[in-house]
Amino acid sequence: MPLGSSWVSNKMQVPIIILHTEMTEKYKIKITFEDPIYPSKIQNRASIVNESKYVFKKIDKIIRNHPYSWCGYDTFDQMIVR
Length: 82
Fold this sequence. Notes:
The chain is mainly alpha-helical. The protein has one domain (5-79). The protein contains 3 helices and 2 strands, in the order αββαα. It has helices at residues 5-12, 45-65, 73-76, and strands at residues 21-23, 29-31. β1 (21-23) and β2 (29-31) form a beta hairpin. The protein is elongated. It starts with a helix and ends in a 6-residue tail after the last helix.
């Protein structure tokens, strides 16, 4: 995601600051967000948790389908589901 974070941030309307990215055996990633603003504009803990889970589930699904191109713009294009 480091190569595509600004693109994802723009398309998903979620400012993303990557502090740490890690890939493990089964293509799981861990990303730490710093002071993100989520699409719903509701700044409470429940909203942040729910929307974080949504973003991570989308990323996880994409990585499972495209494990070798997970940082490419073409892969993140699949996140745009409106």
